[in-house]
Amino acid sequence: MRNLEESATQQKILEAAKQEFLEKGFQGASLRNIVKTAGVTTGAFYGYYSNKEALFAALVEEHAAAVMGCFMQAQDNFEQLSGEEQSEHLSDVAGSCMEWCVDYMYDHYDAFKLILCCSEGTSYAHFIHNMVEVEVESTYKFMDQMRRIGKEINEIDLEMCHMLASGMFGSMFELIVHDMPREKVHEYVRQLREFYTAGWMKIFGFTD
After folding, report:
1. 162-182 pLDDT tens trace
2. For residues 99 and 186, what is the distance between their CA atoms, to the nearest angstrom?
3. What is the dihedral of CA 180, 186, 190, 193, to 10 degrees?
4. Deepest in the core among 61, 122, 197, 208, taking most CB within 10 A?
């Protein structure tokens, strides 16, 4: 019975915190308000969470890790391909990851709303930036691989590569930021993939 009571108390804290963070953002959120809304004592709160950031992490960490994990796995899978396979399937591996990530984000919508719109002041404010940094590194590995197999490819300077990757990921996460309807998101993702794949191919020099 005690474990059930503790679980119910923790859920009340998490639900109150989610609403407070969604309304005011991490920096504007008040622990006092969260505790009051949850109907628990401050002592009870600190029995579960050490501070406000730990509480925010409890709401988003699992889901941030799931999407980042899919993204990193997609990068690893792409790197395992031969150079010829990489040039032929430039968008396929990343595309399937994007489709999965979008479904996952909409299944856990509030968590990603918190990450993308309410996380300033936490480590999660760098969520998109961290993905961009990985993408830039992977892009340079791809260009090196193309040169190793004798394929001519244009050089892209670091700043431009970072801007392109930022635009790509920013566009994908705009789906959540601007509350795009779920029934439209896969078509949007398809169009984004086509747009950015064609752009990358042109800049790499793979098309006329």
Report:
1. 999 999 999 999 999 999 999
2. 7
3. 70
4. 122
